[in-house]
Amino acid sequence: MAAPKVKQDMAPPGGYGPIDYKRHLPRRGLSGYSLFALGIGSLLLGYYSLVKWNRERRRLLIEELEARIALMPLLQAESDRRTLRLLRENLEEEAKIMRDVPGWKVGESRFHTDRWVTPTVEELYYLRPPAELEREKFGLQNYV
Question: What confidence tens digit (pLDDT) does each residue in 32-73 have?
Fold first, then answer.
């Protein structure tokens, strides 16, 4: 028995066409140069707004400082009046307490100077209740 004739697969005449193995992706988004320019532009815009806000903030700080400078004499005068009122009340209380002591001079300075010495908080409040002294020394510190 004769073997049947087998036809072998062969390439077509002239060969097969080229195989497309490269990726052909569509272009998406902006190019690298345009992204770089966009980044630089956003940086410049940010720096511009930062400089503008810093100038505004500096102007507001100067305005606040000028307001403080304008109010300082008033606040100092109020503080001086309060201090003098407390000293006068202390002298009156000292006169009441020490009226029976012979040779006691009310309001005699402990300092050997003619200059004004600002009294400490303890000197101002030594004849008052301790709670008032603590409130003056520590203020609203326990609420913070």
Answer: 999 999 999 999 999 999 999 999 999 999 999 999 999 999
**Residues 127 and 90 sit within 8 Å (Cβ to Cβ):** yes
CA distance 26 to 8: 41
Angstrom distance (rounded) from CA 133 to CA 86: 12
Report field, pTM of the whole predicted structure over 0.70: no
Which tokens belong to 52? 């503008």
Length of the chain: 144
Rg, the chain, Cα only: 46
Question: What angle is formed at CA 95 by the lines to CA 93 and CA 99, rounded to 5 degrees?
Answer: 130
Question: How many other C-beta atoms are found inside a 10 Å radius of the C-beta of residue 90?
Answer: 19
> In the structure, what pLDDT confidence band is assigned to residue 1 with cuts at 50, 70 and 90?
low
What is the sign of the dihedral through the CA atoms of 60, 66, 68 and 74? Answer: negative
pLDDT tens string 71-82: 999 999 999 999
Amino acid at 142: N
Q: How many CB atoms lie within 10 A of CB 104?
A: 12
Helix, strand, or coil (residue 55): helix
> The tokens of 100 are what?
């029976």
